[in-house]
Every structure is written in structure tokens, then in C-alpha cells.
Amino acid sequence: xxxxxxxxxxxxxxxxxxxxxxxxxxxxxxxxxxxxxxxxxxxxxxxxxxxxxxxxxxxxxxxxxxxxxxxxxxxxxxxxxxxxxxxxxxxxxxxxxxxxxxxxxxxxxxxxxxxxxxxxxxxxxxxxxxxxxxxxxxxxxxxxxxxxxxxxxxxxxxxxxxxxxxxxxxxxxxxxxxxxxxxxxxxxxxxxxxxxxxxxxxxxxxxxxxxxxxxxxxxxxxxxxxxxxxxxxxxxxxxxxxxxxxxxxxxxxxxxxxxxxxxxxxxxxxxxxxxxxxxxxxxxxxxxxxxxxxxxxxxxxxxxxxxxxxxxxxxxxxxxxxxxxxxxxxxxxxxxxxxxxxxxxxxxxxxxxxxxxxxxxxxxxxxxxxxxxxxxxxxxxxxxxxxxxxxxxxxxxxxxxxxxxxxxxxxxxxxxxxxxxxxxxxxxxxxxxxxxxxxxxxxxxxxxxxxxxxxxxxxxxxxxxxxxxxxxxxxxxxxxxxxxxxxxxxxxxxxxxxxxxxxxxxxxxxxxxxxxxxxxxxxxxxxxxxxxxxxxxxxxxx
Length: 542
Prior knowledge:
Blueprint: H1 2-40, H2 51-63, H3 80-95, H4 99-126, H5 129-140, H6 143-151, H7 157-172, H8 175-186, H9 194-205, H10 212-236, H11 240-253, H12 262-276, H13 280-298, H14 303-307, H15 310-328, H16 340-356, H17 361-390, H18 395-410, E1 416-419, H19 423-428, H20 443-450, H21 455-465, E2 469-472, H22 482-494, E3 496-500, E4 503-507, H23 511-517, E5 520-523, E6 531-535
Parallel strand pairs: 1-2, 3-6
Antiparallel strand pairs: 2-4, 3-4, 5-6
Helix pairs in contact: 1-4, 1-5, 1-17, 2-3, 3-4, 4-5, 4-6, 4-7, 4-16, 5-16, 5-17, 7-8, 7-9, 8-9, 8-10, 9-10, 9-15, 13-16, 16-17
């Protein structure tokens, strides 16, 4: 009887500890979500749309009209972001909402969930909710990520969520789901495929010998299923060739960057970090390296056990791989998104290590209080900073006014073509007759090289499409800068040059006269000055 009573008491104690742990985890997760909501909502949903965001807005708009990604716009990233913006556009259509704000709301949800995922990952890695809170607050405080949380859609945001979830699932040994989330990360951006690869590799070495086969099959199945489903979709809609051309052929043979040394690239990264991510980005990465070194030093008596910790075989390899990729191909602030969780883990891991070094309850309480106070202070400072910057960004209004003027110039039965920038198309909800809209990263040069007659064939295709208005904006080429000049010289010889503010347009014959009849103010200057178009007083609403 006494033995049975002792067992019952132990069982009750274990259940109480489990309930306490679950409660702490839930409180921590909701706390992380609260921090994300406080910080990310400091930015305005009416911020201006960037060119890169417009790629996915336009692709999503066209998707609900039956035009699959890559057939609507050529983009070298995998299709995850375009499929998600299509989902948001479909929801907006059903609810009669604005599609851009619907897309921004969906990607805002992904950004907030990423903060929660960072909390869970750090908490599970070190079995410390304190580590989770520290990591989540630091991650949410990275301005570069916070900006796009509300003002996106940024293509990489859902990919970072899937990447962090993959690591968390690897900590738990959920091989199928880890492979699945790693594959979903890859379907947002190709370099994130490292997570699926690590999931399969970890399944081959980490489980006990008798469980490895099942783990490998599970991870491989999880990694393959999403790719097969997406490929099957493109087969069904007859766009597999466009899909492979954009996401495989061009990235491996067509990307062109201006000559740049490793030192130049590192200086650009340092400049971006100083503006968008502050010094604690570097501090976090240094701390993570120190935490990994500390783990290996403490576990040197049992090296096999130390190496089998997810911090070593999952976190470290993915961090190093993405660091090397960033150092080899860096284009702007979002390219650092994949490294932000690691910088946040550096702070979380440091908090866990320091807390674990002391067994005295009073000292532990002091450490917990210090970490929580620091997290609160960082949240308050970030909220004030983000609010002062985010409240001032109302660029969407001006962009919509320009789009309204373009839309009136095109007319109800006209055609709009954009070379370089999808924003006019996304904001006017018009479809371009040419899928080569975004022309950066060497896309324009590659497209011309694929045509038998090169530039002449491209110009012939433009003439055949018979556009009413052609917008040339955001086409920057430092690899072959004469290509845009040659194209614009030809456009000026066939179409009538015009401008709306700084936006360069080329109008079909008679288009200016018809635009004036629709309320657009058309100003003609003497000489070779292009026409100047502005919104008329009766164009308050489009």
C-alpha cells in the first residue's frame, strides 16, 4: 500500500510539473505574440508599396483570374509567396475587400507567428521559457523585419516562419513535419531548402539505429510531397515549362550581378545592418557562437552526446550555410531575414546559460527579473522608435494617385505594359501582355539572349501587343546599362514620351488626346520635353 501511495504521489508531482511547464510555455508564447502585435502594428498599412512587393501582389491578382505564377510575371523565386498572395486576393474578392490590405494582413499574421515560433524554438532548445522570451523580443525588435510585417507582402516572411518551425520540429524529433516545413520554406525561396536537407540528414544519423529508416522515410516524404504537389499544379495548368525556366534555368545560368568583391559585399551588409538591424544583430551572432562553443566545451567528456544536440547538428549547419550564401549573394535588407532567428537565439541561449549556472533561488530570481526587465525595456524603446518612423509613412496614397492617372490615360479598353516595375499594374489591376515585367538581376539581358533576333524580337513583341501606355520604371542594369537606353530610344521613336511626376511613360498615338477627354491634365512644352500628365480636379476618385 505504501509503495502504491508513493507511486501515486510521484505521478501527481510529475503531472503538476507538466501542467506548470505547459502553462509557462503558453504564457510565454502569448507574451511573444503580444510583443509582436505591439511592435509590428507601429507601422502603417498605408505605407508605399515597393517594386519587389508588387511582384507578388500582381502575381496574386492574376492568379485568381486563372493566370498561374510565371505565366503572369517572370520571377526567379519559387512560387510560395505568389500562391499565398493569390489566396489573400481570393479572400478579398469574396469579402469585397481591398486585395493589397488583405495580402498585408495575411503576411502580417505570418510575421507575428514567426516571433512565436522563435520563442518556441529557443524555449525547446534550452528547455527554458526565459530563453524563449529573450529570443522572441530581440527578433521582434529587428526593424528591418518589423517594417515589412505590416507593410509587405515581403516574399521571404512565410519562408522564415517555415524555417524556424522546421528547426523547432527537429528539436522534437518530428521528422516528417520537419521535412514538410523545410520543403515549404524552399518553396518560398530556394536557399531555404537547406532546412529540408538538414532534416533528412538529421533523420539519417540522430535517431537510434532501429528507428533511422522510418525517420529518413518520414523526413524525405515530408520534403518531397509539397514539391510534387506544386509541380503537379503547374503541370495541370500547362505552366511547368515557365515554372522550371524561372526557378531553375535562370537562377543557375542567367543571374547577372555587377562586379563586386567579397569586401564590397561585406561593407554593404554592414551598412544595411547599421540602418535596419542595429548592433545587436552582430552581438546576437557572436553570442550564439559563444553558446555553441560553451556547449561543446561542457560536453567534451561525452563528445557524441554533445554533437547529437540540435544546437550542433541542426542550428549550426543551417546558420553557416545561410551565412555563406548571404556573403556570396546579397541584394538588400530582406536577404538578412534568414539570419535574424540565429541572432535572436544568441540572446536566448545566453540567458539560458547564465540562468543555468546558478542553483541559488534568489540569484535565479534576480537573473529572471533582469532578463524580463531588459526585454520590456527593449520592447518599449522599439515601440517608440517604430511608431515615430512608421506613422510618417503614407506613401501608398501618392502611389495610388499616380496609378489613377495612368489608369485614366490607358482608358477602359486600352492596354498597359510595364517594363521594370509591376506597381502600375498591381495598383490598376491590369494585366500586362508581356510577362517580363521585373527586369532586375539580369532578367532583361537573359530574356534578350533567349530570342533569336535578340532586342529586335522583343521590340517586335511589344509592337504586336499594341499597348496604349508603356511605363518604364525601376529597370536598373549595371551589367549591360546600354540595353535600357537602346529600348527607350526605340520607344521614343514609335511612341510619344510622357511623364507623371518621375514616372516615365510612352503613349500610343492619340492616347494623350483621349486621356485629356477623361479628365487627365496634359501639358505640352516646347522643344523635346515629354508631355506632363497630372490628375484633373474631377479625378478625386478612380
